Fold each of these.
Amino acid sequence: MAAVGPKRNRILAFIFATLVVALGVYFFLYFEQDLRNYLASRMGTRSRAEDSLINIPKLILFSLLAFLGVRALSTIIFDFVFRLRRGYEAPTLVRNIFSLVVFTILFLLIFNRIYTEVNLGALFTTSAIFGVIIGLALQDTLGNFFSGISLHADRPFQVGDVIVVGQQKLAGVVESITWRAIKLRTFTNHIILVSNSTAAKEAIEVCSRGELNARYVNFGTLYTDSPAKTIHVVREAVRDADNVSPKITPIVRIRNLGESSIDWEIKYWLEDYAKYNDTDALVRQRIWYALRRSGLTFAYPTRTIQLERKVAPKPVTAEEQIADRLSAVDIFSPLSPEELQKLAAATVGHVFAPGETLIRAGDEGSSMFVVHNGRVQVQVTENGRPRPVAVLSEGDFFGEMALFTGEPRTASVIAMEETEVLEIGHVAMKHLFETNPDLVESISWTIAERRASLAAGSQQLAQGSIEESAGLLSSIKRFFGLR
Ligand code: CMP
């Protein structure tokens, strides 16, 4: 009803304008000859100027009349005949093209009638350059115009359809398609104008008003809820919701077995797609109530965490490991656990790569080593070539000769594999000697043995070694300041 008022005003204004122009034409024709005579008497021989003064208003008046006539004709054809026959409003573009063509023809006829001496055919054929200039200037406009024509020819959508245009996903209801653009009304009641040439290039998703368009709504239920029951309950709750088409039964199906829920989707068809936001919301609401009534539960993110208590064994300290290792060394076997612990605390661990030299023959040395892991080779140089003397492994010791006698290293010691050694310094040994006099003796035996082996190149203990050992004993005691 609200549209009737403005429409009536428009018709009244149109009738009034037509009457004014018609009267203008009538009076102009009535007084035309008198006007010509009057101007001829005033202007004398300048008949061209006199013609212009008469012809220009005449052209304007007749053109106005033609324009109003075309408007009236277009209204009759499209608003009455077309609408009654087809049942929908004629596209704006078609109306515009019709008006433009008819008016142009009428205007040319009027022009030709008034300016009989002007050859219109020649005027159009000689103005090719003018045409090019106009064409370039109107490039975009013409692009839109022809895209609009092709849109109308294809008829991919109509006024009232919901369309989604391009990657930007411009969505709305089509309000009109003019010679320049498609006018969309968005769901927030904004207007978007998509130019016809843009629309012709972009992908357009059309949700036709006359067809049933589907929508999806997702929800999740607990794994303990029966799927069969969920399908039945939700489908029945949604099928009679407002704007959900009764022609196709909604489909309820499991979309995914999620981390903390069975993920569902419901597909349903809409009567009026333009109202999909409201209908989606209504469907969700229906699902909530239906689940509540049936004792089904919406899932929310849950995670089952299993805690495992591990009884950690008491860690063995590095010092305890070292004390263990030292207790396995034969020269330290007489030591008490406390003494071993003290000795372990005084040692420093080192790790060597295979092939690395731990001790170089002839160097000064003030510490000895126990092999913790791995193997080392003792070698001396004879005639410029290395001669292996012994291979020492876990629990063996070396470097004691220089430490206890103060002499240079007697041989080189090289790691045969990755080897970890424990270094014992002069001070730590001195403490041990003070409390364990027997230790000096057993060490002096080993040294004598090794010296003999070095000298003879054999493992056999020579008789001289016993005497040497006695000499060593006293020299070690002297070196360490022991009595
Ligand atoms: P030192 O002389 O301080 O440095 C080289 C080490 O090689 C030496 O102490 C001994 O510990 C060790 N060594 C020398 N000869 C032998 C051998 N025949 N058997 C085992 N080890 C030895």
Note: Residues 458-462 have pLDDT under 50 and may be disordered.
Amino acid sequence: MMKVLVTGISGRMGQAVQQAVAQNPGTELGATHDVGQDVVAALAQADVAVDFSFHGFTAELLAAAVAQGKPVVIGTTGHTAEEKAAIAQAAQSIPVVFASNFSVGVNTLFWLTRKATRILKQYDIEIVEMHHHHKLDAPSGTARTLAEVVCEETGMDYEKDVMHGREGLVGARPQRQIGMHSLRGGDVVGDHTVIYATDGERVELTHKASSRMTFAAGAVRAALWLADKPAGLYNMQDVLGFTD
Ligand code: NAD
């Protein structure tokens, strides 16, 4: 049985991960953590950490994981460039799965977006996401990953070519642009749509999550997958074997 440390235990995802750990026959709860508690002591009681908390906490968790040589699954989003670099640095010593989304459906959407963008790269590409009104970061980590996939396939640059919302006399839409739109409201768990539009037609790829358990179960699957992996930075596509 793999013992799991669940961080952000009072949060929406922490609660879902605790449930997924209990439901998976290969895992059991080793320890829990939340604000103000000692993560070093908590991690000592576990074989792996699954983290859905706050981006500013990741460095502290990784320092403990590197010191104890334990793998980490990071589902938290909203990291700065420096925080992402620190994750990559830690992954040189321990195995880390870092994914903006752990659902099989969304990872299929990432795959489909890559394929569709290869064919439709001349179309106007826009991304729309909607989440519950408690969500802190925008755009969502998943929407950001979708835009990064589009950038990889078109040669666009995330920092230069993503247009976050539009207001006022912004002028005609340049072709070299990805429109990004974040809607917030109610209890929406997570909707993402990638739109490819041209004269005469439009393609829309949509995923809608209706339960956090889809993310939580995927994160626990990632934790089990990490057990025999060497140090390195992995994503959910690696866990699911989407190599193409
Ligand atoms: P939440 O606000 O319900 O819970 C956050 C938890 O983290 C709380 O228990 C809070 O006390 C704790 N926390 C906050 N600051 C902390 C700190 N400095 N140190 C330690 N713990 C701290 O949020 P949520 O909806 O559960 O989402 C948590 C994170 O997971 C967010 O970044 C969200 O975007 C991300 N998320 C990722 C996926 C995915 O599939 N990768 C899916 C859903 C949510």
Note: The chain has nine helices and eleven strands.
